[in-house]
Amino acid sequence: MKNKLVLLFLGCAVLGYAQKKPAKNTVKIKPKSEFVAELMSKMTLDEKLGQLNLPTSGDITTGQANSSNVAKNIAEGKVGGLFNIKSVQKIKEVQKIAVEKSRLKIPLLFGMDVIHGYETTFPIPLGLSCTWDMGLIERSAQIAAKEASADGINWTFSPMVDISRDPRWGRVSEGSGEDPYLGSQIAKAMVNGYQQHDLSKNNSILACVKHFALYGAPEGGRDYNIVDMSHIRMFNDYFPPYKAAVDAGVGSVMASFNEVDGIPATGNKWLMTDVLRKQWGFKGFVVTDFTGIPEMIEHGMGDLQAVSAQSLNAGVEMDMVGEGFLGTLKKSLDEGKVKIETIDNAVKLILEAKYDLGLFQDPYKYCDEKRAKTEIFTTDSRKEARDIAAQSLVLLKNQNQLLPLKKSGTIGLIGPLADAKENMPGTWSVATKMENAVSLLRGIKEVAGAGTKVLYAKGSNLDYDETFETNATMFGKTLHRDARTKEELLAEALKVAEQSDVIVAALGESAEMSGESSSRTNLEIPQAQKDLLNALLKTGKPVVLVLFDGRPLVITDEEKTVPAILNAWFAGTEAGYAIADVLFGDVNPSGKLTSTFPRSVGQLPIYYAHKNTGRPLSNTEGKFEKFRSNYIDERNEPLFPFGFGLSYTTFDYSNLKISSDKMNPSGKLKVTVDVTNTGNFDGKETVQLYIRDLVGSVTRPVRELKGFQKITLKKGEKQTVSFDITVEDLKFYNSDLQFVAEPGQFDIFVGGNSNADKKVSFELTK
Predict the structure, then answer these.
(1) C-alpha torsion sign, points 159, 683, 577, 404
(2) Per its UniProt entry, what is the enzyme's top EC class, as one word (predicted)?
């Protein structure tokens, strides 16, 4: 009888876990819809609005949660979740307030920007994307989820899947580049890595795809700026990765700051309801970005009450920091500006997410102190981070096979990024303990071994302008600015260079020169470092440029003068080891660019899948032609195209074949190509397939990525790579926004980058 009463109590209310943590796997609660409905029937309006409120945790410290500013609101049921609170101890204290002191004892969500790892930090997302390896990318998210969940976090504001074709925008570092097809594959991999197809696991966390929508295309590349584009471009070029995340079952979506069709995304009903829910079938909840609702006031959409009502009616369920929902929706309900049904639906979606995470069954599910001690920043996770980081590096130039370096002689390591461990994790590494990151200096010394002498000099500061350096090294990403004069720094560097057999120049951006609110108009290496590099080149010693960046840079001068360039991005906590592994040939570089490198900032935006004008250039040498679509002072093509990346070995493509020159809409074609490792090293190659629709009812891009495979070939080995083409690969949104494949002629290109020139053709019949 006692057991029956206990089960009845648990089934009818949330109070069953209030005083004691239930034993795992022993307590059963009612099915989700029934459970949530019963819980909502007990909620007051204030408690419902509280579930829609997502404040930041402020300065809660262990042992002080009860006296924090947010504690009172939690106890009154006015908080649905918190973010930016870290550690099991702190989170457990705060969760205890919710489940023991609030009337209905509803557990909280705990969110954090777990963007590219937790304490074990992987390359920035742009770097991760350059692996072109979905298994590795998914694995990085899985490890991030394991560590974050072990530390109390159950919700991440990731993945960011915004397509961007303008590297002036700093947050290009946080995305996966310019291509919707590749971006879609990465979106799925990240969602699957975080959520693992099962949110009931204690090592999976709720993902939040962002920023919906179009955030990566602001005018002028300036963060938070206006976005204006046609619907046909939205659906064909910018929407696919968001939809892929929804199709993968992402649990939440974050609204973007920008406007869409003149209405801020946070209050855009067409975007949040018509597209996201009705067309794509999204079942989770939508959260604003930081203060997204009150920022609509500056957009010119009305006062806080008006924009809060507009956001809720548009289909936004949770208000991050703005407190517009908490403070104004009751009045709007009284005035008939919102309906109780709309509020109830929002509350239901948030409670369902908590149910799916298992928080009603065990509100302390993510508060296991044993896991926190044994599953974060482990030796195994660090090893995987090192391996993944090495595969994200892109070899841009290797004249006369200068790389790989020998583990002998004397290496001069010079540059402001050479001994800068705090910068190796890159932007948006909020949980990283910077003291654990590995600098390039440390990595080279340890990987090279005792038989190699490594000399170091800083050579220059990040930039001549101290204020600029301060702004570019926020959040503990210091470069320890050197007070010596530029002449003194250079003299020390030249002395090191004189004693060295080869120079490794560690130059580029600091970690916070890219990322949120780090837009740039000049994409070149800062002048102080350019001057240093030029002085090193004049010594006549061979120079390897290890380029650190969070975006494509303009390195036209460097490409002409430096014999070897390795693009390192910001490769995470194990960066120093990973870069050294590649420099010395322990790992053959295999990264391929996912974002075009321009010759000049004046070319931006620039991307491979552009459309032709009616007056394209008639020559392929980039020579200027009057009355053609080109520049009078620059070539059209980029410095490095999408998909580009060298290896220490070479690959030959041959024998490209297609199974038929015709395909009907229900059929399938097979495309095969032989790839041979013709060099002297074992290596990996990403084989890329592009399609061009030659004639359409609307203009079509010159080519679009539609398939890729990353293969491993031993020296001298040949492999036949095959791709299947179906009608789905040929579909696009037409002028009526219908997703169609139109009969006609198509070209297929296969090769090692977007300039692939091996071609076969076929016809799609009616």
Answers:
(1) negative
(2) hydrolase
Query: Quick one: tokens of 504?
Result: 């490794």
List, by residue number, the catalytic residues.
Answer: 289
> Could you state, in chain order, the average pLDDT of each consecutive group of 10 residues for the chain (766 residues)?
36 38 58 98 98 85 67 95 94 96 98 98 98 98 98 98 98 98 98 97 98 98 98 98 98 98 98 98 98 98 98 98 97 98 98 98 96 97 98 98 98 98 97 97 98 98 97 95 98 98 98 98 98 98 98 98 98 98 98 98 98 94 95 97 98 98 97 98 98 98 98 98 98 98 98 98 97
Task: Using the structure block, give the residue that is written with the tokens 């599910």.
Answer: 365
Q: Pick from 107, 149, 153: which is nearest to 351 by CA?
A: 107
**Token digits of residue 611:** 């459309």
CA distance 214 to 327: 29
Peptide bond just before 213 cis, omega within 30 deg: yes
Q: Which two tokens stand for residue 446?
A: 């340890």
Residue indicated by tokens 């009860």 = 66
HEC readout, 209-267? EEEECCCCCCHHHCCCCCCCCCHHHHHHHHCHHHHHHHHCCCCEEEECCCEECCEEHHH
Model confidence, pTM: 0.95
Between the CA atoms of 477, 436, 174 and 691, what dihedral angle is there, to the nearest 10 degrees? Answer: 130
Whether residue 689 contacts residue 707, with contact meaning beta carbons closer than 8 Å, is answered with yes
Q: How far is CA 480 from CA 477, 550, 765, in A?
A: 9, 20, 64
